[in-house]
Write a structure and sequence with these properties.
Length: 215
């Protein structure tokens, strides 16, 4: 599915998020607390839009994704990034080799997210950090109602105008509605073996950043 949306992925994202994506990425970079030279895995990196802020923070980033289309679009638009093809549930990396790992707007799309969380734990060094940036549940009921309406009605219409494969965005909206809320995801992260799990809401909880540490 991501192969089909790759060509216009970056632009569609910015339009559909009403340009909020840039701010969410800034918060994510801050939450990762990267030091210059640290090695960070950006899992489900797609075209690498999520990886760029980490480079700007002085880290060495490895963007990894399993979609050939997304990787090809990324290599074209961001030739400086060392893209790696790999499946989140069987990462092609050695144990404990990253200082930090992160995944933005991708864990929800992995068929077995619990397996991916376990793999992320395996490749992170002891004391290393993980931040998951994912759509979540707005805290206030008014915003929840508006947002639910946006996902069901407005988003598919806008996607029809700007995306290469609008049906993919209908699926994305549905996957957001089925994803666990903040507390539910925190519990799954703990179950995968991570410690000190906490989260921070962005845009009223439309997006949440879950932070955790490898014991
Ligand atoms: C919505 S995109 C997010 C891309 C990027 N992180 C961003 O923030 O723009 C989700 C990505 O997850 C990738 N993905 C889904 N399942 C995966 C898996 N099992 N292994 C690796 N990547 C996966 C897709 O190929 C897609 O590029």
């Amino acid at each position: 599915m991501f192969d089909d949306v790759a060509a216009r992925y970056d632009r569609t994202n910015t339009v559909l998020s009403l340009r909020r994506d840039l701010r969410w990425r800034k918060h994510l970079t801050r939450a990762l607390d990267l030091r210059p030279g640290e090695l960070v895995l950006d899992l489900a990196a797609g075209t690498g839009a999520s990886s760029e802020p980490f480079v700007r923070a002085g880290a060495r980033v490895v963007p990894c994704d399993f979609s050939r289309g997304m990787l090809a679009a990324g290599r074209l638009s961001r030739p400086g990034l060392p893209f790696v093809a790999g499946d989140a549930t069987r990462l092609p990396f050695a144990t404990a080799c990253f200082d930090a790992v992160t995944v933005s707007f991708g864990l929800r799309n992995v068929v077995d997210p619990d397996r991916a969380l376990a793999e992320l734990l395996r490749v992170t060094c002891h004391g290393g950090r993980m931040v998951v940036c994912e759509f979540s549940l707005p805290a206030r009921s008014v915003l929840r109602g508006l947002y639910s309406n946006y996902l069901v009605r407005a988003l598919p219409r806008v996607a029809r105008r700007v995306a290469t494969n609008p049906e993919a965005y209908v699926y994305l909206a549905e996957s957001i509605r089925q994803w666990p809320d903040q507390a539910g995801l925190a519990e799954r992260i703990r179950t995968a073996g991570w410690e000190d799990v906490s989260w921070k809401n962005l845009s009223g909880g439309i997006v949440a950043l879950h932070r955790a540490v490898r014991p």
